[in-house]
Amino acid sequence: MTNNKILGLLGLAARARNVCFGADSVEEDIKKRKVKLVIIATDSSDRTKRRFIKLCEENQIPIFIYESIDKISKAIGKSNKAVIGIKDFNISKEIERIYNRG
């Protein structure tokens, strides 16, 4: 159930154009301080995970390793996206709340 809620919120954020996706785009927006939360697919490469964990720690951004590339990509209506940045503060807080309780 938790999964559906988080994936639903990802879809909502995507429809509101409050997401960035793809490693380069997310990294760029992190550096511009636009990203409030980063979600990385569980099946993304270790190199990608390390890179974003380090980036998020440096910029004090929460990061979750969550679901498959397939599922998070489908949630935002894209294909093959391993890294997603949420730009909306309220949506990011809600995802954090659900993730930490689940």
Structure overview:
The chain has 102 residues and is α+β, with helices and mostly antiparallel strands. The chain contains 5 helices and 4 strands; from the N terminus they run αβαβαβαβα. It has helices at 2-15, 23-31, 46-58, 69-75, 89-101; strands at 19-21, 37-40, 63-65, 83-86. A 4-stranded mixed sheet has the order 1-4-2-3, with helices on both faces. Strand 2, helix 3 and strand 3 form a beta-alpha-beta unit. Helix 1 packs antiparallel against helix 5 (89-101). The model has no long low-confidence stretch (mean pLDDT 95).
- Please give the order of strands in the largest beta sheet: 1-4-2-3
Outline the biggest β-sheet. 4 strands, mixed
The helix/strand series, from N terminus to C terminus, equals: HEHEHEHEH
Using only C-alpha atoms, the radius of gyration works out to: 12 Å
- Helical content stands at 40-55%
CA-based shape: globular
Number of strands: 4
How many DSSP helices? 5
Mean of pLDDT? 95
**Beta-strand fraction estimate:** 5-15%
Structural class: alpha+beta
N-to-C CA distance: 9 Å
Model regions low in confidence, pLDDT < 50 over at least 5 residues: none
